[in-house]
Structure formats: structure tokens, C-alpha cells
Design goal:
473 residues, Rossmann fold, GMP Synthetase, Chain A, domain 3, Helicase, Ruva Protein, domain 3, 4 domains, five-stranded parallel β-sheet
Length: 473
């Protein structure tokens, strides 16, 4: 009966897309979700299709949890989403209304006109995705980021010189201040100036994942050789590089690239000397080039960002007006990051689109109230742990809660219990209840087992660090 009330799957998917448009804004929706189609809902699996492999990978890495949350509101049993690349339909005439519809551009006009790749890579090794909107032209400069911006531009311009001036370039600052933006901007600028350049942009998480996979495939030597032959290596979120083996190999790669005159750019949330989890040799090498801090944004820079984002939102949304008073209020109260400022503008636009009410200080304060509480650490829930562990190990959530004793299920279950004890305030009996009504002694055994294994198994320790990183972001 409930299924009948929900209507056809296509109607439910239309409602999900409408909510995505409201939450993310028209520009984000048009870039990433306009062409996503529903294939089928099958048990706990939702199957969606997209036009390209890049789009599939981008949605997986950036919007998986958002889509899953909205999908479960329509289909509560859904636990996983499968993004597939559609096969082209040869020999089938498109419907008349589809033939007459103008083609929508995938990206805003700010995207590079050159046929640049949206994912860097070398020798078959794929880097992390690049956002074409993150260029030097779209980066707003203020007192707090002027040095980092100038250094990044200099690296891109002087890329072809025999001996780079700033090598390595190390950018550091808190979350949401523009480090990733500058790394993307360097990548785009280098590829525009020299399309044949071998550019590789990676997050530390992706570097670790690639290295662990190479170890499993007994292909570590080839992996390292590929990295050492690229022209410019850009590593983001360096603070998350974990494990002595991985750090040692990265240090060798870093030395090889710098000694060979290849450019290295690194970003982290702290200066090299404060990255306590890195060994002394790597901290010394990272601090041997130019270290540029991106400080907290002052009022002028926050206002400049809000003015730009509000102008874009108003030009894209008919009837929307955001007054100087509202922008001044937001610039005064929202002080944490650029993402916070962009999120505020997205919310104002979504509120106007959904209610058709003008944007006032009262409505702005109500909409962004949670943002003005300051940066609070994300509260990790046991549901988050179950979902993340299930997705990471490819295990059905129901199996984690069941009485099955297969090794492929027992180990992820024990890791989930360990993470629940580490990252939540739940008691052992409560954790046992949430993991299939298990006794608290079972939970205690699981925690001690994982702690013991982590002492002897570097790979397991690195996997759990990755899971902690995913849960806290």
C-alpha cells in the first residue's frame, strides 16, 4: 500500500531531483544532475545512469551521501546507489521534443575553452577530479591569501623553467580558505600553457588508496616509477598521509621529483613543522621550499566573496534580490570559511525559489542560524558508521547486523564496533544493540581484537584511518 502511495519510480525520482535543485542550487544541479536518469530500483539498490565516466566518478565521490539520503526518503529500503555509464543509443530516433530541446552546457562559461581533461593522470594512473570552476580567474584575493595566490601563479607561469623557483610550494590553512582552489587553478593553468605537460593532482587519501592497491597487486614498483616521471605533482590534504611505509615511499618520490627539477605543490591544514604524524625527513623537505599560509578571511574578503556569489545567484534566478544590508550581515556573522559563505547564498536562493518570499535579514538569520553557531565538529552517528563500513567493504548492511560468521562479514562488523566506541559516546551495551542486539562482551571482544590487529597490521591501521577520515568529513 505504501508503494502505491509513493507513486511510480519515475515520479519519485523527479521529486528527488527537485529537492537536489533546491539544496544545491541551480548551477550545481545543471552541471551534475540534469542528465542523471533512473534505471531501476531493485531491493536495496538504486541504479542511476549518467552520460560519461567522469560524471559517474564525480557523483560517486562528491554527492553519493546526498543522493542516498534523499533516495531513502522515497524508498526506505535503499542502502546503495549504483552509478552506471549509459550506452549510446545508435539507430534510434530521438523523440521530437528531445530533438527540439537546446543542448545545455555542462559547465558555466568560466570553464576553460581548451579541450582539457577533467581528471589529471599519467601512464594510466588517474588523479583526483578537477573542478573547471576553480581557476585563478575565479579566485578572490585578499590580505589573508595574497602571498599564497601570488606564489601559486608564479609556479604555474614558471612551470617550464629548468629549475623551479619555489619547489616544493607548501600551502597551509584551515578548511575552506582556498587551498584546494589554488591547486586546481595551478593544474588548469599549466595544462592551458602546456597541454602536453604530465600533471597529476591527488588527495593524500587517493595516494594512499592507490599505493595500497599497488601493494595488493604486487605492482608497487611500477606505481612509484609512474609518479616519479610526471612533470608536476600536486598533493592535497597532506595531513592525512598515514602509515610509515606510505610516508617513506612518498618521501622517496618527493626527493626524486625535486632533484629532477619537477615541480611539487602540497596543501595541508598546518605548516610542515606542525605535521607531527610525518617523519622529520619529510617535514624538513616539505619546509625547504616556500611555505605560504592562507589566514582567516577578513571582513573585506568575506564581503567580496558574498557579493560575487550573490551576483551569480541573482543573475541565474529570476526575481531574486539580496540587499547590501543582508550581505553585510552575513559577512559580519559568518567568519569560518568560503564554503560557509557559498552555502549561505545557496540557502537564500533555495528559500526564495521554494517560498517566493523576499530575502530579508530576518529570513537570512533564520536560514543560516546553524552556520552562525561556529565550526562545531561533526557528530558521528552509528548509522553513519554502518553505511560507511558497508560501502567501503562491499558488505550488505543487513549482513553486518545478522548472525552470520563469515570472515568477510565478521571483520567489517568488528571494525564498525571499534569505530562506534572510538567516535561516538555510546555505551558498549548500546553499541551491541545497534549492531544486531549483541551482548556488550561481544563488543568488547571486537574492540580488543581490532586494537590487537592494528598493532601488527599496517594495512588495517591505514584502512581504519581512512574510515575515520570519511566519517569526520
Amino acid at each position: 500500500m505504501a508503494q502505491q502511495e509513493q507513486g511510480a519510480p519515475s515520479e519519485a525520482w523527479a521529486r528527488i531531483k527537485s529537492r537536489l535543485r533546491g539544496e544545491l542550487g541551480e548551477d550545481v544541479f545543471a552541471s551534475w544532475f540534469r542528465g542523471v536518469e533512473l534505471e531501476k530500483v531493485e531491493g536495496e539498490d538504486l541504479h542511476l545512469t549518467v552520460a560519461t565516466r567522469f560524471l559517474r566518478n564525480w557523483l560517486r565521490s562528491h554527492y553519493y551521501d546526498v543522493v542516498l539520503r534523499l533516495a531513502r526518503a522515497e524508498w526506505p529500503p535503499v542502502e546503495r546507489i549504483e552509478f552506471k555509464v549509459r550506452q549510446p543509443h545508435f539507430g534510434v530516433e530521438a523523440p521530437k521534443e528531445q530533438r527540439q530541446r537546446p543542448v545545455q552546457p555542462l559547465y558555466a562559461a568560466e570553464a576553460p575553452s581548451l579541450p582539457l581533461p577533467l581528471r589529471t593522470g599519467y601512464g594510466g594512473f588517474e588523479g583526483s577530479p578537477l573542478d573547471p570552476r576553480l581557476t585563478f580567474a575565479s579566485f578572490l584575493v585578499g590580505v589573508s591569501n595574497r602571498l599564497a595566490h601570488a606564489a601559486a601563479q608564479e609556479v604555474a607561469v614558471a612551470f617550464s623553467s629548468p629549475q623551479p623557483l619555489f619547489n616544493p610550494l607548501f600551502l597551509h590553512g584551515n578548511v575552506g580558505l582556498g587551498k584546494t582552489h589554488l591547486l586546481h587553478a595551478i593544474s588548469w593553468d599549466v595544462k592551458q600553457r602546456k597541454p602536453e605537460a604530465e600533471v597529476l593532482y591527488l588527495t593524500a587519501e587517493r595516494f594512499m588508496s592507490g599505493f595500497v592497491q599497488a601493494l595488493r597487486a604486487r605492482d608497487a614498483l611500477a606505481f612509484k616509477e609512474k609518479l616519479r616521471k610526471i612533470d608536476i605533482l600536486l598533493i592535497d590534504d597532506m595531513e592525512f598521509l598515514q602509515g610509515p611505509t606510505i610516508q617513506q615511499e612518498f618521501c622517496h618520490t618527493l626527493n626524486s621529483l625535486i632533484d629532477g627539477g619537477r615541480q611539487v605543490v602540497v596543501a595541508a591544514d598546518r605548516a610542515p613543522t606542525q605535521l607531527d604524524k610525518l617523519d622529520m625527513r619529510m617535514r624538513s623537505r616539505l619546509g625547504g621550499g616556500l611555505v605560504a599560509e592562507i589566514g582567516a578571511m577578513d571582513y573585506e574578503l568575506r564581503r567580496k566573496i558574498l557579493d560575487r556569489r550573490a551576483q551569480e545567484a541573482c543573475s541565474d534566478t529570476k526575481g531574486l534580490e539580496v540587499s547590501d544590508i543582508v550581505l553585510a550581515f552575513l559577512a559580519e556573522r559568518l567568519t569560518e570559511s568560503g564554503r560557509e559563505l557559498e552555502g549561505a547564498v545557496h540557502r537564500l536562493r533555495a528559500s526564495y525559489q521554494l517560498t517566493d518570499e523576499p530575502v530579508t535579514i530576518e529570513t537570512a538569520e533564520q536560514i543560516v542560524r546553524d552556520l552562525m553557531r561556529g565550526a562545531e565538529p561533526r557528530r558521528v552517528r552509528i548509522d553513519d558508521i554502518l553505511r560507511t563500513v558497508s560501502k567501503h567493504y562491499g558488505v550488505n548492511r543487513g549482513d553486518l547486523l545478522s548472525g552470520r560468521r563469515n570472515r568477510s562479514i565478521v571483520r567489517p562488523r568488528q571494525i564498525g564496533m571499534y569505530l562506534a566506541k572510538l567516535l561516538t559516546s555510546r555505551s558498549l551495551p548500546e553499541i551491541g544493540r545497534r549492531f544486531g542486539n549483541r551482548d556488550h562482551t561481544t563488543v568488547l571482544h571486537a574492540i580488543r581484537k581490532i586494537e590487537q590487529l592494528m598493532n601488527d597490521d599496517n594495512q588495517l591501521r591505514e584502512e581504519i584511518e581512512l574510515l575515520k577520515r570519511l566519517l569526520r568529513d
